[in-house]
Amino acid sequence: MISPKIFQKPIWLALIDKYNNDPDIHGILYELPLPKHIDEKVLNAINPDKDVDAFHPVNVGRLMIGGDEVKFLPCTPAGIQEMIVRSGTETSGAEVVVVGRSNIVGKPIAMMMAQERGRRKRHRDIVHTRTKDLAAHCKRADILIVAAGVPDLVKPEWIKPGSTVIDVGVNRVGMNEKTGKAILKGDVDFDAAKEIAGKITRCPAVSAP
């Protein structure tokens, strides 16, 4: 006799179903990477209209189309876009280079930066750590967004003078023996790069001295 348990949904999937059908819940956000006991099917299980981080394939398609089709913007790429706007960085005709091709940051921010608004056209490249002559791509960038997960990957000589550099990398490179906290570094050599870039961010989780 077949046990009825094999037809039961996992607890996490049943919970998603409950939240999908609850009119009082307007958004669902899950943290990646997922724990080992949770299948990646969760990415497709959430109602696309409640998928706050826009990981569902439907929302990836909406992001590709742009405009009113977009229900939610992925949080980190949306933050990057907001920093660019608030810093007064000119995007019209700008060359944008995104280093990193993750589904969480690299791909969605590249898609968002490729969208046209009126006549504000911009050229956009998405590259990664194995891209041939990565330095040359970075040197051309008016706006350089780095999310590769490699500490100090981008050297100061790779940066175009006056450009806007946004470092999304958060890399643990050791432990502070006094505080017991991880030592963090970004993907950009900040101390050297700040002398060349027009605008630059630190590694998001590293406080200014």
Structure overview:
The chain is an alpha/beta fold and 209 residues long. It has 7 helices and 7 strands; from the N terminus they run H-H-H-H-E-H-E-H-E-E-E-E-H-E. The chain has 2 domains: 4-69, Rossmann fold (3-Layer(aba) Sandwich); 75-200, NAD(P)-binding Rossmann-like Domain (Rossmann fold), CATH 3.40.50.720. The strands form 2 sheets. The chain has a 5-stranded parallel β-sheet. The protein is globular. Mean pLDDT is 86; it is low at 1-7.
How would you sum up this structure in a few lines?
The protein has 209 residues and is α/β, with parallel strands linked by helices.
Which series of helices and strands comes N to C?
HHHHEHEHEEEEHE
What's the CATH first level of the largest domain? Alpha Beta
Radius of gyration: 20 Å
Distance between the termini: 67 Å
**Percentage of residues assigned to helices:** 25-40%
Unreliably modeled segments:
1-7
CATH topology of the largest domain: Rossmann fold
Number of helices: 7
Largest sheet: 5 strands, parallel
Which properties best describe this structure?
Rossmann fold; two-stranded antiparallel ribbon; 7 strands; 26% helix; globular; disordered N terminus
